[in-house]
């Protein structure tokens, strides 16, 4: 079934409204925000360098601190602070983790389900499995980050032995003739023989888009599991000098000029 046309029109309209609101808010700032290339690449050709002419700055400075349009973050933010103040409603993640818990999977698998799409909800959608794994790598068992990295690839490949079929949603999203890129197929061939394959496969099994609207899941249900399996740095995510601290800082300050 194709993606409904009215949904496409609605999202275009709400995108236009959001852009108008965003530009009004940006005008009201006393600082100039220059969007990162990644924000606009595709909508505009990235080789068109942003205009930094003095006329455009109109006497204002460039934003190098908190963006007043975003919720303020604590000085030493925790994973829960990011869920609360930066991640889009994480219903899909909470529902996935709830399904994993209900199915009796171990706590590391539940955590992997809870975090599997944090890149989608808070950072970058394209290649989200890889970005998501990098975001959590220093803080979780390698089984968890490996599974998060692999789930993006494994979603494209059925494993009937465990009851995982190619997602009907992907037929709707990408068309019946879509085939994953060769680099995804190559990654899949390596991943299916990996010792943590089944952990990643369990993410895909609990990674469903059809939710029961009568069920609400509370982050509170996962606080203990996070406490036991996510090594929260004392300095806060973004400030512990880890290999991915800069990525968390970018989520805190996505509009900083440098
Ligand atoms: Fe995903
Ligand atoms: Fe997902």
Question: Could you please describe the fold and organization of this structure?
Answer:
By secondary structure, this protein is mostly helical. It folds into two domains: 5-62, no CATH class; 79-252, Hypothetical protein af1432. It is built from 14 helices and two strands. Strands 1-2 form a two-stranded parallel sheet. The chain binds fe (ii) ion (2 copies). One fe (ii) ion (FE2) binds at residues 92, 116-117, 207.
Observed structural traits:
258 residues, mainly alpha, globular, binds fe (ii) ion
Main sheet specs: 2 strands, parallel
Q: What is the arithmetic mean of pLDDT? A: 90
**CATH topology (fold) name of the largest domain:** Hypothetical protein af1432
Oligomer: single chain
The rough form would be described as: globular
CATH classification, class level of the largest domain: Mainly Alpha
- Number of beta-strand segments: 2
Provide the number of structural domains: 2
Which small molecules are bound? fe (ii) ion
Give the distance, in angstroms, between the N- and C-terminal Cα atoms.
44 Å
Helix content: 40-55%
SS-based class: mainly alpha
Radius of gyration: 20 Å
Q: Given the structure, what is the number of helices? A: 14
* CATH architectural arrangement of the largest domain: Orthogonal Bundle
Strand residue content: under 5%
Strand order of the largest sheet: 1-2
Order of helices and strands: HEHHEHHHHHHHHHHH
Low-confidence stretches: 1-9
């Amino acid at each position: 079934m194709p993606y409904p046309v009215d949904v496409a029109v609605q999202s275009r309209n709400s995108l236009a409204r959001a852009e108008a609101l965003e530009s009004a808010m940006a005008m009201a700032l006393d600082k100039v925000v220059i969007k990162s290339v990644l924000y606009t690449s595709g909508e505009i050709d990235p080789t068109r360098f942003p205009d930094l002419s003095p006329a455009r700055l109109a006497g204002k400075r460039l934003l190098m601190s908190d963006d007043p349009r975003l919720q303020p973050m604590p000085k030493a933010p925790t994973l829960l602070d990011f869920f609360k103040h930066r991640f889009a409603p994480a219903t899909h993640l909470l529902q996935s983790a709830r399904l994993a818990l209900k199915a009796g999977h171990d706590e590391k698998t539940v955590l992997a389900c809870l975090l599997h799409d944090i890149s989608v909800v808070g950072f970058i959608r394209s290649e989200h499995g890889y970005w998501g794994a990098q975001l959590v790598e220093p803080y979780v068992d390698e089984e968890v980050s490996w599974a998060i990295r692999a789930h993006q690839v494994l979603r494209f490949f059925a494993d009937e032995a465990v009851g995982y079929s190619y997602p009907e949603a992907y037929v709707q999203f990408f068309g019946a003739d879509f085939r994953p890129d060769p680099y995804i197929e190559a990654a899949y061939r390596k991943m299916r023989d990996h010792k943590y394959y089944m952990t990643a496969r369990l993410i895909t099994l609990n990674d469903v888009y059809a939710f029961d609207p009568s069920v609400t899941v509370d982050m509170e249900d996962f606080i203990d599991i996070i406490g036991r399996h996510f090594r929260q740095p004392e300095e806060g995510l973004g400030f512990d000098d880890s290999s991915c601290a800069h990525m968390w800082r970018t989520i805190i300050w996505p509009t900083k000029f440098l």
